[in-house]
Write a structure and sequence with these properties.
By secondary structure, this protein is an alpha/beta fold. The strands form two sheets. A three-stranded mixed beta sheet has the order 1-2-3. A three-stranded mixed beta sheet has the order 4-5-6, sandwiched between helices. Strand 5, helix 6 and strand 6 form a beta-alpha-beta unit. The two termini are 18 Å apart.
């Protein structure tokens, strides 16, 4: 099983890059930088299931995208990534989610519903649970990597029962992540 949290999300982004245009040496170096960036973000202790950050690397230039719940997280992540070996520049496009009691309540209710369900107990005990719940103005987006299509659909169903204006399911399966990794190598 892949490291579900950030490595998986980073590999999804790698899938969208045009790797064929670069030489194999540059591609390998960018891929290694991407893995190191993912590890750096994964080890950031303030990064929670309510944040989502993705990275794209091209010739040592790292573009960070996603959403975090606090401004200091965006700044800390940018600093951490800039210290990764092989990173020449960091373009920080991470957005900070607005402060909202409704959104906070929705986040916690959905997290309890998903990670409290017996199908997701094996995810909940992981040091970095792989399903991320991003809530912005009452709109929910689920990101990360799950074991199967059943888990993906169940997570969406559980997230949809709390009055969110919309629920977008951007979860990927392990099989999709393996396929993306094979295409990138």
């Amino acid at each position: 099983m892949l490291n579900k949290r950030h490595i998986g999300v980073a590999l999804v982004l790698l899938m969208t890059t045009n790797i064929a245009a670069a030489s194999s040496i540059e591609t390998r170096k960018d891929f290694q930088v991407l893995k190191d960036v993912a590890t750096s973000v994964d080890r950031y202790t303030q990064f929670t299931i309510f944040d989502d950050v993705s990275a794209y690397v091209k010739d040592g230039v790292v573009t960070l995208t996603g959403k975090v719940t606090m401004p200091y997280k965006r700044d800390d992540i940018e600093k951490r990534v800039s210290r990764v070996d092989g990173v020449r520049t960091v373009l920080d496009e991470i957005a900070v989610l607005p402060v909202s009691q409704f959104d906070d309540d929705l986040r916690y209710r959905i997290a309890r519903s998903i990670y409290g369900h017996s199908n997701f107990w094996n995810y909940a005990i992981m040091p970095n649970p792989p399903i991320h719940i991003v809530v912005e103005h009452g709109r929910v987006t689920l990101t990360g990597v799950v074991n199967s299509e059943v888990d993906r659909m169940l997570a969406r169903t559980l997230a949809s029962q709390f009055g969110a204006f919309s629920v977008t399911n951007a979860l990927k399966t392990d099989a999709e992540m393996r396929e993306a990794l094979e295409k990138s190598e």
